[in-house]
Design goal:
Length: 103
């Protein structure tokens, strides 16, 4: 199992609490993992500060499957053009920064 922290860019105009609620309300995504809010503990160079809070999901899924589920949840909220960038913290946690894709 790996922990993924999802940081939502302000460009999405979607609060982390709203994303977590949408994730947990969806039967498919909630059956895989439960999203919960955690405070950001990053530094000024840390992408998790984009949202000020992150959603934490622990799952054994491959990251590309998780990306598709994130896109599915965001599409239901009206966000179809997104970009996901992944970084790995020294403690092994994966940070997925989700941003609006203009292109």
């Amino acid at each position: 199992m790996q922990e993924y922290q999802i940081a939502l860019s302000p460009g999405l105009d979607l609060a982390p609490v709203d994303f977590a609620a949408a994730w947990n309300e969806d039967i498919e995504t909630h059956s895989i993992a439960k999203a919960h809010l955690v405070p950001s503990t990053g530094t000024h160079d840390d992408p998790t500060l984009i949202a000020g809070a992150v959603i934490s999901i622990t799952t054994g899924l491959a990251s590309n499957v998780l990306y598709d589920l994130i896109k599915q949840v965001l599409a239901k909220k009206g966000h179809t053009h997104i970009h996901i960038a992944e970084t790995k913290k020294p403690d092994g946690t994966h940070i997925l920064v989700v941003d609006y894709d203009e292109g």
